[in-house]
Amino acid sequence: MQKALAGAKAEAAKEQKLYTRPAAPRPPPDLVALAGDYASEEMGSAELRPDNGALVAALEETGAQLRLEPFDGTVFTVRLVPEGRFADVVAFWGDGPVGFADFEANAAGRPTRLRWTPKGQAYLWTKEPDATGAE
Prior knowledge:
Elements: H1 2-18, H2 31-34, E1 36-40, E2 44-51, E3 54-59, E4 65-72, E5 75-80, H3 87-93, E6 99-105, E7 111-117, E8 123-127
Antiparallel strand pairs: 1-2, 1-8, 2-3, 3-4, 4-5, 5-6, 6-7, 7-8
C-alpha cells in the first residue's frame, strides 16, 4: 500500500511539473485571430471564442467545453469546463489540465490548425474559412 501511494505521489508531482509555465513564457498570439470554427474527423466541430484571456472551445458533438489557457507562445493548457453533464467528471477527476493544445499557421501567419494532445493521444482540428473565405 505504501509503495502504491508513493508511486501515485511521484506521478502527481511529475504531472504538476509538466504543467508549470516557463519562468519567461512567450506571449500568446492574438486570441481573436485564433477564434473561429474548426472541424475534426475524430472529434467533430468546435467553435473557439475568446474568454477572459483564454479561449473556450465548444465541442458540438459532445457538448463539452474546453478552456485553452496561454502557456508558452502558441502552446496552451487545456481544461475541461465543469458545466452541464461534465461538472461531475471534473468533480471526480479534478480541474487540472487534461493536455496541451497548440496552433499551426499558414505562410501568411493565419491560424489553420489546432492540435490537442491529451495524455498520449492527438486530435487535430482544421480551421474553417470564415464568410469572406479567409481562414
